[in-house]
Task: inverse folding
């Protein structure tokens, strides 16, 4: 095939009707599809084209051939009528009469085909034999002048081949050669003009063969072209990785769905999904695994929606599901629930199981927008809101969100500046042994003094730092500052009381976390025993195997490991024995109504019992009153961190407290 640029090929498709099932790969190119393509590409054909092609989708190949037969036989009849002497020669009159009869039969046969459209192969064979019989008879009848009918042979043979395929071309040429030879032999033409007849016979064999090769070539070219067209169309409308429709298709469908919803007065919803912590999965398991996970998520999403809904991937770890034809918000939310049943579960990538969840924002037509852009933007805003919230995985848009999101975006930018300019500071909250009344540890807690807004609580800015990845840089600053504090205390010969820092899962999943930590420890020449790391339960479940390797390494280097907010996560108790944990921090929520609330007392007792059995230190966090402290001592818990004994304070004050506790 000539090298034609794809764009040009797309603009000028090669005619496709020249195909046969035997020649063309049935899967990639069914001849009927190609015929359709041909008909569509050139639906207004001149009448003459009926001789070779089907002219419109309503007219079948056979009808087209029937019409051609009518035209050709009528022309033959006229030519004979004017060229022969019908008035004086009976023989000529009979010839013209036979031609006329054949024209009449052709007209009748055409109408027969219009009524009986069903496919009947033998009807075509009979038509081939009849056509060639008539032409052979004319050849026989007119002697060597009958050669004038030779082009008609070609039409019958090639026309059949082009319309019905190679099989018919073969049969037509065989019948043609037999008829031609018989007519020439019986008419005595062979003896008189043997070389002319031989030449024509060779032509009858060679020309169909030539067309056969040509058809095959065109079929191959068409196959390649069709695949190019299909590929280009697929790529333009689908996400290559998951096979889901892409943003272009989504916008189209959403536009269409909006028109429908307006007409039918139904609701529709745009559901925006964004995976949580996908970057860490890509970093830890590699991009191939990340891709596999995206495919798994895509297929889970597809399974959870109805057939009329559209799941699309916008790119990265963002998906949009379009829910159509909803009658009420409750119906929409129940499908959203079903979609979210795929979130917060384990997906297998290769030999690993990995936990993945996502944040989900919902915008509903008409209340949250009446056009494509507004609905998608508002669903995105609601998703952003869900992401920022620690507890809500799904948010339905409401009007106040846009302002809130704008405020959050500005907070994000300001936090970035604060981290870059090292404006975040640390407070230290002492941990006291109630029996000795001495400080046995401290927790380092980040503080952000915003120039305009004043003190911003960590509960507000830590989630933003986590979402934006800023937590890694901020966490490193915390480690540096704590190491600096510890080295200062050592130089001032203050007692070696460990300081615990909160490390976020993102920090721990950084491949060079251990090296960075050791570099800090060496730079300030502090002992790892003086540094504790607080991790949350969820870290343990997210990637148990890798976390265990890291925590074992940290433990063997001498760092202390504390399990923060114990009792609020979803880890199984068996994790306590699996990981090298030194201390458990009972979450402060269990001390809200302690010791008056019987349930909270039972939970605290149970955690203390587990800690004792497993020989882990147990510390109570968020203890605010003397009653609570006394009750804890009675239950066997002597270490606490809470406003009762001390609030988080700047380093200078913590240093004073340490000095005093030495006395
Ligand atoms: P957390 O790790 O559970 O920290 C304990 C929180 O409880 C601190 O809040 C502390 O001030 C508060 N607290 C201590 N005793 C009491 C009490 O008796 N009553 C009450 N109501 N609260 C008490 P803070 O400082 O606001 O920190 C909140 C959270 O921010 C922390 O929870 C931690 O998850 C996160 N955070 C703080 N600093 C860092 C950090 O450096 N890195 C990371 N990754 N997270 C941090
Ligand atoms: Ca903590
Ligand atoms: Ca805690």
Result:
């Amino acid at each position: 095939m000539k090298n034609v640029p794809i764009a040009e090929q797309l603009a000028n498709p090669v005619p496709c009707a020249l195909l046969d099932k035997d020649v063309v790969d049935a899967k990639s190119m069914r001849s009927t599809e190609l015929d359709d393509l041909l008909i569509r590409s050139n639906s207004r054909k001149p009448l003459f084209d009926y001789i070779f092609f089907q002219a419109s989708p309503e007219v079948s190949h056979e009808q087209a051939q029937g019409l051609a037969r009518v035209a050709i036989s009528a022309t033959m009849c006229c030519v004979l009528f004017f060229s022969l002497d019908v008035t004086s020669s009976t023989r000529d009159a009979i010839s013209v009469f036979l031609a006329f009869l054949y024209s009449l039969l052709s007209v009748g046969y055409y109408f027969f085909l219009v009524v009986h459209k069903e496919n009947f192969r033998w009807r075509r064979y009979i038509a081939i034999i009849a056509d060639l019989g008539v032409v052979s008879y004319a050849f026989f009848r007119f002697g060597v002048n009958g050669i004038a009918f030779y082009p008609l042979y070609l039409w019958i043979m090639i026309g059949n081949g082009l319309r019905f395929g190679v099989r018919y071309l073969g049969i037509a040429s065989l019948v043609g050669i037999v008829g031609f030879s018989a007519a020439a032999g019986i008419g005595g033409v062979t003896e008189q003009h043997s070389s002319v007849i031989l030449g024509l016979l060779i032509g009858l064999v060679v020309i169909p063969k030539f067309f056969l090769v040509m058809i095959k070539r065109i079929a191959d070219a068409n196959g390649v072209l069709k695949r190019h067209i299909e590929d280009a169309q697929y790529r333009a409308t689908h996400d290559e990785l998951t096979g889901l429709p892409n943003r272009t298709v989504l916008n189209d469908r959403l536009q269409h769905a909006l028109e429908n919803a307006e007409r039918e007065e139904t609701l529709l919803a745009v559901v925006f999904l964004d995976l949580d912590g996908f970057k860490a999965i890509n970093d830890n398991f590699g991009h191939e695994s990340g891709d596999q996970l995206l495919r798994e998520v895509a297929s889970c999403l597809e399974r959870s929606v109805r057939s009329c809904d559209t799941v699309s991937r916008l790119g990265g770890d963002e998906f949009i599901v379009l829910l159509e034809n909803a009658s009420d918000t409750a119906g929409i939310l129940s499908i959203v629930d079903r979609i979210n049943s795929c979130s917060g579960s384990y997906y297998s990538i290769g030999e690993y199981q990995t936990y993945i969840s996502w944040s989900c924002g919902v915008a509903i037509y008409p209340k949250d927008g009446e056009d494509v852009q507004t609905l998608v933007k508002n669903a995105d805003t609601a998703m952003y809101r869900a992401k920022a919230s620690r507890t809500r995985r799904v948010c339905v848009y409401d009007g106040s969100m846009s302002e809130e999101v704008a405020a959050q975006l500005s907070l994000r930018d300001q936090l970035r500046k604060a981290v870059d300019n090292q404006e975040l500071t640390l407070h230290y909250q002492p941990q006291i042994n109630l029996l000795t009344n001495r400080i046995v540890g401290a927790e380092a807690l980040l503080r952000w003094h915003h120039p305009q807004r004043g003190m911003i609580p960590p509960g507000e800015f830590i989630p933003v730092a986590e979402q934006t990845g800023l937590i890694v840089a901020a966490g490193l600053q915390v480690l540096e500052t704590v190491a600096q504090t510890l080295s200062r205390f050592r130089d001032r010969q203050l007692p070696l009381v460990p300081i615990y820092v909160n490390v976020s899962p993102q920090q721990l999943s950084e491949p060079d976390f251990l090296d960075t930590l050791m570099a800090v420890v060496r730079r300030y020449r502090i002992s790892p025993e003086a540094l504790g790391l607080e991790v949350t339960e969820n870290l343990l479940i997210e990637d148990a195997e890798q976390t265990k390797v890291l925590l074992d390494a940290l433990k063997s280097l001498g760092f202390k490991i504390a399990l923060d907010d114990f009792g609020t996560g979803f880890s199984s108790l068996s994790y306590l024995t699996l990981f090298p944990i030194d201390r458990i921090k009972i979450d402060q929520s269990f001390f809200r109504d302690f010791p008056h609330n019987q349930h909270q007392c039972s939970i605290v007792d149970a955690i203390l019992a587990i800690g004792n059995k497993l020989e882990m230190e147990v510390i109570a966090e968020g203890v605010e009153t003397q009653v609570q402290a006394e009750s804890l001592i009675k239950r066997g818990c002597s270490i606490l961190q809470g406003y009762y004994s001390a609030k988080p304070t700047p380093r200078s004050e913590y240093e004073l407290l340490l000095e005093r506790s030495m006395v």
Notes: Residues 564-565, 585, 621 surround calcium ion (ligand 3) (CB under 6 Å).
